[in-house]
C-alpha cells in the first residue's frame, strides 16, 4: 500500500463499527493516527470493539455522547449506514469536521487502479462479472466495497499490477473527497433508499459523486437505456462510454441478439450464463470495462458464458428430475422480481413470493405475473400478494416458510419447469436478512435432491 503520512498524530473518530469501521480503525492506527472508536452496541456484546480495545485502540461503546466531539478531531470516518441526520454526524459537520466513509481511505492507500461500480440494481452481479473477466484476462482483480469486503482492508494488499474492483453504495459515495476511479460504472438508477436520502434527486446526486474527480483520461460507463444517464453525458469531465440493449451506441450494445463493443461482435446474448434482459445489461457494462482494460473478446465471451451468477441474486442452484431451481432471495422489491421474471417462460415457472409487509400493493407486478404456472405465497404480505395473483389469473398455494414453500413448489412442478424464489419483499418478517432466507432455500433444494 502507499505510504502516506497525512494521518500521523491526527485525532480521528471512527463512528460505528461493523466490518468497514473495524477495518478503518485498524488502518488509521497503522497510519499513525490517534483513533477513537464510538459504537452504539454495548462493550460486553461487542466482539469487534473488545478486539480493538485489546489492540490499544480507544473504544467508547453503548451510546453516542455528543460531548465526545468536544475533543479536537481532525476527521470522522462513519459507517455508511449512519445517516447524516444522526446527531453525532450533524454535530461534526457543524464543527467543520470532515466526514468520510472508509472507501476514501482505500483510495488514498491503493497502489492499484480502481474500477468502481454503483447503481440501483445489478451492481453486485456486474461487479462480480467484471472481476471474473479481468482475472480471466490476466489482470488480477480484487473485489471490495459494498460486496462484503471492506475496501480499506483489500486496498492494503494490492499492487500496481492489480485492479481494485469496488462495488459502491450511495451511502459510501456521500463520504468521499478525493476518491477517483479510472473506470466507473452506473448500472441504472431507480427510486431507492428514499428513507435515507429524502428524495430521488438527493439519491441521484449521491450516485453521481462517483465521477466528481474524474478527468478525460478516465472512463464512465453509463446506461443509455435511461434518459437520466443520457442527460449526464455532458455533465462529467470523464470520457463517457454508453451501453444499451435498445440502440446501437458508441460503446457496448445489443443488436440482432448479439453483444457488440464498438462494432466488434463479442458473443450471442443467449450464451450469457445467467438469464434475463437485466443480465444482458450487466454483461454489456462488463464488456465495456473489459475492452477498456484491454481484454480479448474471446476471453470475455468464454467467461460470461460460464458465469454462474452471484449467491442469492438470480443464482442457478440445481436440477432435480429436470426441474430447475433459481435463488433470487435478493429480490426485495417489485422491480427486482420483474427483472427476474423477464428471463423465463412464465408458463413453466412456479414463483415463490411474499415477505415483509411494507403496506405497498403489487398491482404493478400483475402484468409480469400473468401466465405463471403457479405461485407459492408466504409471509406478512401474503394477502396483498394473493390479490395480485388473483388479478393476474394465476393459481396459488399458501406456505408457512421458505422450506415449506420450496417443497410445495417442487411438488407442483413438472419436468422442464423452473422453481424461482424471487420474493419481491424484504425478509425481516421471518428471517434476519435475505441471505438467511436464500440459504434456507438452498438447503431445502439440497435435501430434496438427496431424497429424489
UniProtKB/TrEMBL annotation:
Keyword Cytoplasm among record annotations? yes
UniProt-listed PANTHER family: UDP-N-ACETYLMURAMOYLALANINE--D-GLUTAMATE LIGASE (PTHR43692)
Q: Which UniProt keywords apply?
A: ATP-binding, Cell cycle, Cell division, Cell shape, Cell wall biogenesis/degradation, Cytoplasm, Ligase, Nucleotide-binding, Peptidoglycan synthesis
- As recorded in UniProt, its EC number(s) are 6.3.2.9
Which enzyme type, at the first EC level?
ligase
Q: Which residue range or ranges hold the Mur ligase central domain?
A: 117-290
Residue ranges annotated for the Mur ligase C-terminal domain, each copy included:
312-424
Q: Which reaction does it catalyse?
A: UDP-N-acetyl-alpha-D-muramoyl-L-alanine + D-glutamate + ATP = UDP-N-acetyl-alpha-D-muramoyl-L-alanyl-D-glutamate + ADP + phosphate + H(+)
Which GO biological process entries does UniProt record here?
Answer: cell division; cell wall organization; peptidoglycan biosynthetic process; regulation of cell shape
Protein family: Belongs to the MurCDEF family.
Q: Which InterPro entries does this chain map to?
A: Mur-like_cat_sf, Mur_ligase_C, Mur_ligase_C_dom_sf, Mur_ligase_cen, MurD
Gene3D superfamilies referenced in this protein's UniProt entry, alphabetically: Mur ligase, C-terminal domain, Mur-like, catalytic domain, NAD(P)-binding Rossmann-like Domain
Q: Where does ATP bind?
A: 119-125
Q: Which Pfam families match?
A: Mur_ligase_C, Mur_ligase_M, MurD-like_N
Q: Where is the signal peptide?
A: none
The task this protein performs is described as:
Cell wall formation. Catalyzes the addition of glutamate to the nucleotide precursor UDP-N-acetylmuramoyl-L-alanine (UMA).
Q: To which pathway does this protein belong?
A: Cell wall biogenesis; peptidoglycan biosynthesis
Q: Where in the cell is it found?
A: Cytoplasm
| Name this protein carries in UniProt | UDP-N-acetylmuramoylalanine--D-glutamate ligase
Keyword ATP-binding in the entry? The reply is yes
This entry carries the following GO cellular component terms, namely: cytoplasm
Which Gene Ontology terms cover its molecular function? ATP binding; UDP-N-acetylmuramoylalanine-D-glutamate ligase activity
Amino acid at each position: 500500500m502507499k505510504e502516506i503520512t497525512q494521518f500521523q498524530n491526527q485525532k480521528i473518530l471512527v463512528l460505528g463499527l461493523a466490518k468497514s469501521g473495524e477495518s478503518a480503525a485498524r488502518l488509521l492506527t497503522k497510519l499513525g493516527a490517534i483513533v477513537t472508536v464510538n459504537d452504539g452496541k454495548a462493550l460486553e456484546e461487542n466482539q469487534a470493539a473488545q478486539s480493538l480495545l485489546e489492540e490499544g485502540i480507544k473504544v467508547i461503546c453503548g451510546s453516542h455522547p455528543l460531548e465526545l466531539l468536544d475533543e479536537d478531531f481532525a476527521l470522522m470516518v462513519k459507517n455508511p449506514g449512519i445517516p447524516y441526520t444522526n446527531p453525532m454526524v450533524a454535530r461534526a459537520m457543524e464543527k467543520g469536521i470532515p466526514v468520510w466513509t472508509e472507501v476514501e481511505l482505500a483510495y488514498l492507500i491503493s497502489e492499484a487502479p480502481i474500477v468502481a461500480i454503483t447503481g440501483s440494481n445489478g451492481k453486485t452481479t456486474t461487479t462480480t462479472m467484471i472481476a471474473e473477466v479481468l482475472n480471466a484476462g490476466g489482470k488480477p482483480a480484487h473485489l471490495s466495497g459494498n460486496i462484503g469486503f471492506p475496501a480499506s482492508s483489500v486496498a492494503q494488499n494490492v499492487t500496481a499490477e492489480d485492479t481494485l474492483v469496488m462495488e459502491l453504495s450511495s451511502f459510501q459515495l456521500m463520504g468521499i473527497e478525493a476518491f477517483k476511479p479510472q473506470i466507473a460504472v452506473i448500472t441504472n438508477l431507480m427510486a431507492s433508499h428514499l428513507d435515507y436520502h429524502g428524495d430521488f434527486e438527493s439519491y441521484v446526486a449521491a450516485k453521481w459523486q462517483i465521477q466528481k474527480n474524474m478527468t478525460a483520461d478516465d472512463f464512465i460507463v453509463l446506461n443509455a437505456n435511461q434518459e437520466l444517464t443520457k442527460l449526464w453525458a455532458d455533465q462529467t469531465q470523464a470520457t463517457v462510454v454508453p451501453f444499451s440493449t435498445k440502440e446501437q451506441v458508441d460503446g457496448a450494445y445489443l443488436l440482432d441478439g448479439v453483444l457488440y463493443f464498438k462494432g466488434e461482435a463479442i458473443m450471442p446474448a443467449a450464451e450469457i450464463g445467467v438469464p434475463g434482459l437485466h443480465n444482458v445489461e450487466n454483461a454489456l457494462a462488463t464488456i465495456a470495462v473489459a475492452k477498456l482494460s484491454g481484454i480479448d473478446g474471446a476471453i470475455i465471451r468464454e467467461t460470461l458464458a460460464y458465469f454462474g451468477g452471484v449467491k442469492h441474486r438470480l443464482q442457478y442452484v440445481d436440477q432435480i428430475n429436470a426441474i430447475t431451481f433459481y435463488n433470487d432471495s435478493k429480490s426485495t422489491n417489485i422491480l427486482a422480481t420483474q427483472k427476474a421474471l423477464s428471463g423465463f417462460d412464465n408458463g413453466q415457472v412456479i414463483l415463490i413470493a411474499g415477505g415483509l409487509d411494507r403496506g405497498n400493493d403489487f398491482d404493478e407486478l400483475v402484468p409480469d405475473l400473468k401466465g405463471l404456472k403457479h405461485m407459492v405465497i408466504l409471509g406478512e404480505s401474503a394477502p396483498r400478494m394473493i390479490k395480485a395473483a388473483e388479478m393476474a389469473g394465476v393459481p396459488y398455494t399458501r406456505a408457512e416458510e421458505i422450506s415449506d414453500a420450496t417443497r410445495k413448489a417442487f411438488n407442483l412442478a413438472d419436468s422442464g419447469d423452473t422453481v424461482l424464489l424471487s420474493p419481491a419483499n424484504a425478509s425481516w418478517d421471518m428471517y434476519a436478512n435475505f441471505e438467511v432466507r436464500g440459504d434456507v432455500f438452498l438447503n431445502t433444494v439440497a435435501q430434496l435432491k438427496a431424497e429424489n
